[in-house]
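Customer ticket, subject: "Can you confirm the structure for Glycosyltransferase family 52?"

Message body: Hello, I'm evaluating your service for our small team and ran a test protein. I'd like someone to confirm that this is what the system normally returns, since I don't have a reference to compare against.
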Amino acid sequence: MTKFIAVAPKIASSYQLLSLLSYVRANHNEIKATYVFLDPYWHANQIPSRYTNYCEKYNVIFVKTAGALPNSKAIKEAGCKLLRFYVNNVSLKSVLLRRQDRVVLIADGLGTYVNCASKINAVTRERGKPTLNEKRKIFNYMLMSNVAERFSSVHSYMIFDKASLKLDKSFVEQFKISMTELRCSKDDELVNHLIFISQPLVKLGVLTEERYLELLKHLEQRAREKRLAFLVKPHPAEDVDWYFANNFSALDFDGVIEEFGVNNPRNEFISFLSSALLTLPYLTESTVYRLPLPEFERNIVLSSAQRELLSRVQPLYLKSFND
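Agent reply: Thanks for trying us out. I re-ran your input and got the following:
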């Protein structure tokens, strides 16, 4: 049987890397080697070395530049087929012009399920209002990506299928194996905490710092009422010292929250719009809440797919805070 050599030209987060690894492990009989270029988005050390070391056990090879990835000619000369990983979207041009025998699409979380309007809204929050020409480019890219994914042989490997939004139980099984294998046996299990999975919404202008601080105090009070300790899991783009300066405890954990949740299930989790809301309810037995706020309706545009996926998560309304 002719085997594949897989290449991933732009992996930017731990979740993306572990999704890729789960696919590689599940299909190890077909894949000879996997070459990955890490392109960090938030900061250079976002992906812990223990994750890359873990991947190397499954013959994942990390290259220092995208140009060092093997090309289709070299792979063919080695007697193998080319498998290429894409994140979130596949461009029609790439599918039509590149000589690749298999295309695998992995997710980056909630952002995978955007439409044109929600994508433009996300770009506006992160970089400022796009020009008309930039909006046209986003529209054309989204349109061509949808065509490529629907009318070509793209293998989707993510927790929810992009088109049907159906749960992929095989992804859940394989991803959970990755989480359990990563756990160190010496780790003590943390129990009886309400863990708030934060996002940089102050930095993005969705919430004021004063409003955010008030919210944290309400969540801390809610935890006390349930006889739980309160912990914050800061986003990689946030300054953890800010939480300490405001007398909040931060979770000291370098990995994805899914790994922590699988190996520490006797806790409760809550977040605004974190992608963990899509994964934790299916990977763990923990109670998971989403936290609706009026600011989201005013400042954040979500696609119908994103709204549907979030609606599957139990909401926790802080009436005293929202009044």
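A couple of notes from the result: The chain has a mean pLDDT of 89. DSSP finds 14 helices and eleven strands in the chain. Feel free to reply with more questions.
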